[in-house]
Design brief:
alpha+beta, five-stranded antiparallel β-sheet, 21% strand, binds zinc ion
């Protein structure tokens, strides 16, 4: 890890990886998603801000879990919704 741009990203030790290749919320309603993100607090797998339902963003607001990672293959970055901060790992 390089130096983190905010305290939430600083707290992430081992990056949690997605358990599933689907958005936990979109599958319930049959909606489509674009990219997947993983909550670093509870490991929920949710869809990105370019997806129609933006579940990762809604989850961050509702739960107070600010940090997500990209769950896309080959992408290694973390993002904090609270601080609009991003870092690669
Ligand atoms: Zn932060
Ligand atoms: Zn979704
Ligand atoms: Zn969460």
């Amino acid at each position: 890890m390089t130096s983190a741009p905010c305290p939430h990203l600083e707290e992430v030790g081992t990056v949690r990886q997605s358990r599933r290749r689907q958005c936990d919320e979109c599958v319930k309603t049959g909606d489509a998603w674009l990219h997947l993100r993983t909550c670093q607090t509870c490991a929920a797998t949710l869809c990105c801000d370019s997806s129609p339902n933006r579940h990762a963003s809604k989850h961050a607001q509702a739960s107070g879990h600010p940090v997500i990672s990209s769950a896309e293959p080959g992408e290694r970055w973390l993002y904090c919704y609270s601080d609009d901060a991003m870092m690669e790992y």
